[in-house]
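Hi F.,

I've been meaning to write this up properly since the lab meeting, where we talked about keeping a consistent format for the predictions we share between groups. The idea is simple: the sequence comes first, exactly as it goes in, then the structure tokens exactly as they come out, then a line or two of notes. No screenshots and no reformatting. I'm using this chain as the first example so we have something concrete to point to.
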Amino acid sequence: MESMSKLLKIGDLARRTGKSVRALHLYEELGLLTPTARSQGGFRLYDDTAETRIRWIELLQDSGFSLHEIQALLRAWRSTRYGPDAMNRIREIFEKRLAETKEAILRYQALERELQGSLEYLGACQECRPPRTTQEDCPHCPVDHGMTREPALVAGFHTGPPTPATIPLLASSENAS
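Output, unedited:
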């Protein structure tokens, strides 16, 4: 067994990894992290492989796995009798996650384009002269925003339920009918 002086108490491991002691306790409860030993006083002690395991958990979480999914992944790994079978199972899970990640990247790239277009469009609103007096003036703005149509993130403001400014107009037109 490794010398007790080289082992880390849970608080020291938490400081080295940037995790809270509570998070490390949770990892242990879920079977994701196991102390190497316990001190005579009953303190959990970890060797340097614990830092590797914590980094592994962080990477899986960063790629979208919940702690319970990581627990299931580890359980699947441990329950597979043959190494190649275990590797195939993990590869299938990672391939699926990679495909999901690529789809998410495409969605985020589309969102980025929409946000950039909206910001460009809204930047032109600073040049509006004379300034529009109400929100209802904006869809009829004479300023060239350099786009053939409003970005969807901006257009949504000009559609939908009546705004407080138009409610009195609606009420008076309803009374007239």
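Notes:
DSSP finds seven helices and three strands in the chain.
The two ends are 90 Å apart (CA to CA).

If this format works for you, I'll send the rest the same way.

G.
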